[in-house]
Amino acid sequence: MNARHRQILDAIRTDVHQVPEVFVQRAACAAMGHGQMVGILARPAGAAPEEGRAGLGAVAPEVQGRPCAAPAAGLSCRELATPLLSGEATISHAASWALAAINATLPTPAGAAAVKGQDIMRHLGSGRRVVVVGHFPFVERMAGEFASFHVLERNPRPGDLDNRDGSAAATVLPGADVAVITGTTLLNGTLGTLLELLPTGCTVILLGPSTPFAPSLLECGIHVLAGAAVLSPAETLAAVSRGCCFRALPGVEHLAWAGTMPVPVPVPVPGAGTHP
Fold first, then answer.
1. 131/122 Cα distance (integer angstroms)
2. Of 152, 150, 115, 108, which is closest to residue 133 (Cα–Cα)?
3. b vs e for 234-246, b when ≥16 Cβ sit within 10 Å of the residue's Cβ?
C-alpha cells in the first residue's frame, strides 16, 4: 500500500462521514466462508425498516473458505469500515465487511446510469489498447474487439498475465488507453500503485459490486464508477448466505456513475445484445 492508496482511503472516509451514520440491521455471508460475497443491510438510528440500504463486498480469493463471522446487528457501519479505511485490514473478511459497510452507507448517486461497466469498456475501448485488472467473467468474449487486450490477475487463469509480484502491471499499464480495474484492489491495497502506472489520458473504470459510489474517487484519477445497487435486500442477502456469486444474485442492478460528467453509455446497435 503506497501513499496514493492511503489518500484514496482517506477520500472515501471523508465521503462516509459526510452522510448520516447507519447501523447494521442484518449481515449475510456464506457458511464457513465459502461464498464470494458478503452483504450488509443498514439504516439510520430510528429509521423505519423500509429506509434501509444494502451494500455488498467481495471476498478476496485468498480468504474464501475460511470461517466468516458476521457483524452483529446494531454496529455502526462507520466503525466496520475503519479497519479498511485506516489501512489496517487488507485481504481479510474484515476488509470485505468494511467495503459492504461503506456501500450500505453511501447513497446511490442520482445521476447513475443503468449500464454494465463491461459495456462501457467495450464502447470506449473499441480499436484501442485495453487492460483489465482482475479476471471478470466477460473477458474471454471481448478480447478480439480491441487493438490490444491484457488481463492482469493475482490468481491467474489461462491467458491472464500473472500479476502477483506487480511486474505485469508495470509492463502493460503504461501503454493503456482504457483501464478497467476491479474494486477488490481496495481490498488488497494495490489501487494506488496501479493508478500511478497509467499514462495521462487513460480512461479508468473502477468495476465490480465492491465499487463504492464515493464522489471523492472521481478526484483520485478514476473516471467511471461501475458498481451495483441492491434493489431487493432480503432476496439478495438470502442468496449471499447461500454462497451465490455476484452474477447469480437476484435483486441487484448494475449502475455506472461519472459524477458531473455524463456516463459514456454505449449506443445500442439494432439486433445486437449486450454482454451478460
1. 12
2. 152
3. eebbbbbbebbeb
Residue 80 phi/psi, 5-degree rounding, is -65, -30
The model's pTM is 0.93
The yes or no reply on domain 117-257 and CATH 3.40.50.11590 is yes
pLDDT digit string, tens, across residues 220-251: 999 999 999 999 999 999 999 999 989 899 99
The grid cell for 102 is 461503506
Q: What is the DSSP letter of 154?
A: S
Give the model's pLDDT for residue 271.
38
Give, in order, the Cα–Cα distances in Å from 131 to each of 27, 96, 140, 179.
34, 25, 13, 5
**186-218 tens-digit pLDDT:** 999 999 999 999 999 999 999 999 999 999 999
The strand ranges marked E within 198-260 are 203-207, 224-230, 252-257
Distance (Å, whole) CA 43 – CA 53 = 6
Contact 38, 97 (CB under 8 A): yes
27 and 55 in contact (C-beta within 8 Å)? no
Helix axes 93-105, 3-17, angle to 10 degrees: 40
Whose grid coordinates read 494506488? 192
- Domain spans of the chain? 3-105, 117-257
Q: From CA 275, how far away is CA 271, in angstroms rounded?
A: 13
